[in-house]
Amino acid sequence: VVVGGDNSTVLPNVLDELVRFRMKVRHYALALPEAADAVPMEGVVGAQESKQEQKEKRKQLMQERKPLLEACDSLRADLATFGIHIK
C-alpha cells in the first residue's frame, strides 16, 4: 500500500531497495558452507554427543542466518521511508 507521494517516483526507489536486498541475500547464500554429513549415533554416549552437536549446529545456523534477518528488517524500514509498510 502506497501512502502519499507520486507512484512514478516511488517505484524506482522500491526497485533500488529490492535490488539491494537481493544482493545481500545472494551474497549470504553463496557464502554458506556445504551441509555436513549426519553423524551416526553409536550407543547412549554417541546419542548424547549427537544431541550436543545438534544444539551447536542449530546455534551456529542461527548466527549465520542473523544477517539475512537483519537485511529483511532493513528492507522493511527502508521501504517505510517511501510510504510502503510491510506488516
SSE diagram, text form:
Elements (H helix, E strand, L loop, with lengths): L6 H25 L11 H38 L7
Helix pairs in contact: 1-2
Q: What descriptors fit this protein?
A:
87 residues, mainly alpha, 72% helix, elongated
- What fraction of the residues are assigned to beta strands by DSSP? under 5%
Largest sheet: none
Oligomeric state, counting identical vs distinct chains: single chain
Counting helices, strands and paired strands, the structural category is mainly alpha
Q: Low-confidence spans: pLDDT under 50, at least 5 residues?
A: 35-39
Count every helix, treating DSSP H or I runs of 4 or more residues as helices: 2
Order of helices and strands: HH
Number of strands: 0
Indicate the mean pLDDT.
Answer: 74
DSSP helix fraction:
over 70%
Global outline: elongated
Cα distance, first to last residue? Answer: 11 Å
Radius of gyration: 20 Å
Question: Can you describe what's shown?
Answer:
Residues 35-39 have low confidence and may be disordered. The chain has two helices and no strands. It is mainly α and 87 residues long. The chain has a domain at 1-33 and 65-86. It comes from Neodrepanis coruscans (wattled asity). This is SYCM protein.
What is this structure, in a nutshell?
This protein has 87 residues and is mainly α. Helices cover 72% and strands 0% of the residues.
